[in-house]
């Protein structure tokens, strides 16, 4: 299995800016806070950074979706780069980190700074989610095109109803219940209480979950993540540099990037799963490890149902079996579960850092830096999974090889 | 109503699609009461959303083809969130299977059906909501229970 070139790469450092519901801070400043923290965490300086990767690159719409692009950071830190890449066409948000692994393994760079920066909380301000919807400011002349052509005319502009349609189909085929799905937000909230950077930390009960207002059946408000401001960064380094690093490296054991079904939220071949089905299968084909070896899972929960499909896709339970797996919440509990899940509170309670938060938390746990929320038993193997619908990218991480 | 279809009464606000040579028949054939998809003349594949080259056999010989208008409900959601101006809340967004081809689906709104009566797998049929905008008359394909179905 040593031929897979991601094994030549490690995560050498991680950093995060302040995180808040609405910070009203300059988004590039937040980005640089995270980047400089990650560089220092790795024991490196800006002189050592010779690659930069980000997702999605500069975007003005939707508001606050991207706090900085590669060239903003390159110029702000006066970096000299052998390789760089930013863009939204990738296997999910962590596709940018996987790109960095490939660039390092290919010799185009040695230490790649990877970042994701958002300020959706501040950008939406008091105008609410409706202000971010396509055409919301366009008056009567706006016409829908691209994928939105097939959803906007039916007043379905958000991923909430798109994911709700999938969840309802899963409920129908497998008997999955809201009480089972609700274990994901309940677990996230419980973990968030131990994360000083989390957005929502008040205790949540199953009654709270079942009685909060519906958004799009079967998804309620607590099945949807929370927009926030904040930036996250990690450093991908070549394994040959580990002697120069400040911390023990976290090895990239395997990655998954596959997209085999139609790249669409409604035309995908099986709406009870997602592109993560194929990305996950690919990942397990690149390692001798198995799901039974994994000590913790940080899985994208932009909507709770996406995390449910990641659990199935990654093989922690069978397809259609996530409902029983989640029943009662014990399997995913941080303190006693077979698979501690979203130990920082996920995007549901710790804020939509958009994919990178899961990788940051997986590294935090594998470095044993989780503080009050540290998973016991010195976890050695973790997964970071990001993306929903047609977007999916995953990394299998280990503390030793 | 073939020549000058009357806009549907009491229309909800809808964002209308930008018409192109590829999608025009899909979005306007409903003014004649027809649901049409771009179909490959070489291999018979319904190509939706429409593209100029058949994804199966790569032929460029495609033309709009009328289907029955029947469907089955693949999944649905009752939407309670006011994302944008639109139908009265709560409204139903559904995905329907078009029986003429195994992988032919549409996202749509389910209308004329009590929410308690929604059942995945139920037979549906198309109904059109006609919108006039500038020079365009656009027929939005919605689906309702097909109570004539056996």
Features:
heterodimer; A: 401 residues; alpha/beta; Peroxisomal Thiolase, Chain A, domain 1; nine-stranded mixed beta sheet; two-stranded antiparallel sheet; 13 helices; B: 150 residues; mainly beta; five-stranded antiparallel beta sheet; 1 helix; globular
What does this structure look like?
The complex is a heterodimer of chains A (401) and B (150). With 401 residues, chain A is α/β, with parallel strands linked by helices. In chain A, 28% of the residues lie in helices and 16% in strands. In chain A, a hairpin with a 2-residue loop joins strand 6 (214-216) and strand 7. Chain B is 3% helix and 39% strand. In chain B, strand 7 and strand 8 form a beta hairpin. Chains A and B meet through strand 5, helix 5 and strand 6 of A and strand 1, strand 4, strand 5 and strand 6 of B. Strand 5 of chain A pairs parallel with strand 1 of chain B.
Q: Specify the overall morphology of chain A.
A: globular
The biggest sheet of chain A, with number of strands, parallel, antiparallel or mixed sense and barrel status, is: 9 strands, mixed
What's the number of domains of chain B? 1
Compute the CA-based radius of gyration of chain A: 20 Å
- The top level CATH class name of chain A: Alpha Beta
Write a brief structural summary.
The complex is a heterodimer of chains A (401) and B (150). Chain A is an alpha/beta fold. Chain A contains 13 helices and twelve strands.
Which helices and strands, and how do they pair?
The complex is a heterodimer of chains A (401) and B (150).
Chain A: E1 9-16, H1 27-41, E2 51-54, H2 70-76, E3 83-86, H3 95-105, E4 111-119, H4 120-124, E5 143-144, H5 159-174, H6 178-181, H7 183-192, H8 206-211, E6 214-216, E7 219-220, E8 229-238, E9 250-256, H9 276-284, E10 296-299, H10 304-313, H11 322-326, H12 346-350, H13 356-366, E11 381-386, E12 393-398
Parallel strand pairs in A: 2-3, 2-4, 10-11
Antiparallel strand pairs in A: 1-8, 1-9, 4-8, 6-7, 9-12, 11-12
Chain B: E1 16-17, H1 24-28, E2 35-40, E3 62-67, E4 70-79, E5 91-97, E6 105-110, E7 123-133, E8 136-145
Antiparallel strand pairs in B: 2-3, 4-5, 4-7, 5-6, 7-8
